[in-house]
Amino acid sequence: MPKILIVLAERRLYFYKNGRIMKSYPIAIGKPSTPTPTGIYYVVNKVINPGGILGTRWMGLSIPSTGGPYGIHGTSMPWSIGQAVSNGCIRMYNHDIEEIFPHVPIGTTVEIIAGGPADPSCPTGHKRPYIVQPGDTLWGIARRFDLSLADLIAANDLPNPDLIYPGQLIYLPDCIQYSFSPALV
Hints:
- By secondary structure, the protein is mainly β.
- The chain folds into two domains: 3-113, Beta Barrel (L,D-transpeptidase catalytic domain-like); 127-184, Membrane-bound Lytic Murein Transglycosylase D, Chain A (Roll).
- The chain has three helices and twelve strands; from the N terminus they run βββββββββαββααβ.
- The strands form three sheets. It has an eight-stranded mixed beta sheet with strand order 3-2-1-10-5-6-7-9, covered by helices on one side. Strands 4-8 form a two-stranded parallel sheet.
- A hairpin with a 2-residue loop joins β2 and β3.
- The longest helix is centred in the last third of the chain and has 8 residues, at 149-156.
- Mean pLDDT is 84; it is low at 117-125 and 175-179.
């Protein structure tokens, strides 16, 4: 069964299948006054064309709430992707949620973690996967994750760091292991 990992600090959603990252997507998350809750949840319902600000797809989550449901959904406000602006939901570009929607059955595990910058006292050699997105450069990736360009190049043993391509798997050197909790793997 597929799994979804959401890393709030990165504002990214990682889509896993058979224990491997298939793709990652930029997202919008909850604003400080209505943050996206961390924890382990499940997809409880799915709706095509839910209407309004929810974009073209909705995947409801099992997050307990008194103020309304939480979910992963498209958006009528694509400018919001990459921002902390929602009421706690996870927003995706409509074309991105349309891509994964058919591959996410009800019951799929969704783990939401805070994430954050690497611990400077971290032992070397720890790496986490990252899927290169359209428009990415190594310099841009290094800046986004607060890494040195030299460390990023060294972690990937890249013969020509100017030649990266969308869909390529590279590794980010740090101590944060973005993978599912051991009980979920």
